[in-house]
Amino acid sequence: MSDPLASSGHAVEPASRAATAAARSAEGAPGTSRPRAVIVGAGIGGLTAAIALRRAGIEPVVYERVAELRPAGAGLTLAANAGLALRALGVLDAIRARGAEIDVGEGRGPRGERLQRTPIGEIGRELGVSMIGLHRAALQEVLLDALGRDRVRLGRECVGFTLHQDGVVVRFANGDEVEADLLIGADGLHSVVRRQLHGETPVRYAGYTSWRGVVEGGASLIESGASVETWGPGRRFGMVPIGEGRAYWFATANAPRGTSWRDREALLSRFGGWHPPIAALIEATDPERLIQTDIVDRPPIDPWGRGCVTLLGDAAHPMTPNLGQGACQAIEDALVLANCLGRGPGVEAALWTYERLRQARTAEITRQSLRFGRLGQLEHPMACRIRNAALRLTPAGVALRQIGHLIEPGTAVREALSAVPGSTGVTR
Predict the structure, then answer these.
(1) Which among 83, 136, 342, 427 could bridge 73 via Cys, Cβ 3.0 to 4.6 Å?
(2) What is the pLDDT of residue 344?
(3) CA 90 to the chain's CA centroid
(4) 178: helix, coil or strand?
């Protein structure tokens, strides 16, 4: 099997120490002997990692290919596992102020009939952190402010890297090179860092496409404090309050890959006859901000990185959004990675430990999310009736325990939480 590092023309080779000094000076690296990390990607995982690394005594600089960080994306939910990490990093209060607490999760049928209602707020009360719905852009702004915008270099597209015996040289499309002690690829589903490490690996299409939208003032249309998901044959529709008076909604439908239905009329033809306020949410959405995305993931891999290079978040373990854990697992990654690097004894050993601690959990959640999506996308009427009957018969306590098992921080996260100065860790 060919070596992606060698076959790409970027094999391990010595790097110029003069170039290293020039690069550090040009990038404004602090005059310190602390290990210096380059993080590729200014998304949620990359920014959280940078905040966590600074607290662990490591100097990070984040490089982002876009020239301007404009508000983008739609909504998301942060479960208690992510909330615990964000609290430890000192940003949870600012996030709470921008979002909405979620106390109940409810499943419904297309006519509005209740299939299941789960008091998910109980998990948050036990762990000391509530589930929060908020706009992705709001979370990114909070993280940017906490990190310091001077730590982010915009308009810097990573095109590759070269490993050498003392670290790594990261190359950018404008011809710049930066040397660092470690490189973290947090550059998402189509990660350049991952591609050099592992070659071209196709994504796995889950069999359905999705739409997402945000309605300004839409919080008045939906139940306060509730995340509601409606299941029909081969289709789903969800709605969540995300703070600042806004409502986030998403929809899915079984379809061939690449099917384009990016308009409200197509959505209304599929969901307009479902229970209120589904049609009202679709109609109130700015068509220019309607997002359609095919749902994909990738099978788990091992290892994630090599030497002083590793991956984080979607670059390492892209997962379908069915369990709402994509951003949460990237945040967990960031906390555990910083703890491993902070403890030492060396960069490569720390990255190896980080990957060992994170791979089993993220792989299992990737598999669970894929299975859950298949259940939600069942299309045959008889299969749907059986599924819905099973949901009705499942006691709320059983559903709550299943969610709690998903959210409950593992040993690695608990240790990382305890290691953050001033953190209260986990309350139970």
Answers:
(1) 136
(2) 77
(3) 19
(4) strand
Order across the sheet with 177-180: list the strands: 158-164, 167-172, 177-180
- Rounded distance between C-alpha atoms, residue 275 and residue 223, angstroms: 13
Hunting for tokens 């994630």 — which residue is that?
Answer: 304
User: For residue 318, is the peptide bond before it cis, meaning its omega torsion is within 30 degrees of 0?
Assistant: no
In sequence order, the β-bridge partners of residue 2 are none
Report CA torsion sign: 316, 351, 328, 65. negative
| CA–CA dist 133, 78 (Å, integer) | 6
Q: Are strands 226-232 and 177-180 parallel, antiparallel or unpaired?
A: unpaired
User: Are 418 and 425 contacting, i.e. CB atoms less than 8 angstroms apart?
Assistant: yes
What is the Cα–Cα distance from 331 to 340, expressed in whole angstroms? 15
**Phi–psi pair at 19, nearest 5 degrees:** -65, -35
Question: Got the DSSP string for 218-278?
Answer: GGGGS-TTEEEEEEETTEEEEEEE-STT-EEEEEEEE--TT----SHHHHHHHHTTSSTTH
Half-sphere exposure of 234 (CA within 13 A, CB side): 11
Question: 3-class DSSP state for residue 160?
Answer: strand
> CA nearest 63: which of 182, 144, 151?
151
Rounded to whole angstroms, the Cα distance separating 43 from 206 reads 23
Under 8 Å CB-to-CB from 124, ≥6 apart: which residues? 80, 83, 101, 103, 130, 131
Is residue 100 over pLDDT 70?
yes
How far is the C-alpha of 83 from the C-alpha of 1, rounded, in Å? Answer: 42
How many whole angstroms from its chain centre is CA 369? 13
Q: Across residues 72-101, what is the average pLDDT? A: 96
74 touches 291 (CB < 8 A): yes
From the list 161, 165, 160, the residue with the least C-alpha distance to 17 is 165
- Helix (H) or strand (E) holding 358, with range, is helix 347-376
Q: How far apart are CA 61 and CA 39, in angstroms?
A: 6
H or E segment to which residue 141 belongs: helix 136-147
Q: Furthest-apart CA pair in the chain: how many Å?
A: 70
Torsion 353-23-66-99 (CA) sign: positive
Determine the Cα–Cα distance for residues 194 and 406; give it in Å rounded to an integer.
27
pLDDT value, residue 26: 40
The per-residue pLDDT for range 62-84, each reduced to its tens digit, is 999 999 888 778 999 999 999 99
As beta bridge partners, residue 37 has 60, 182
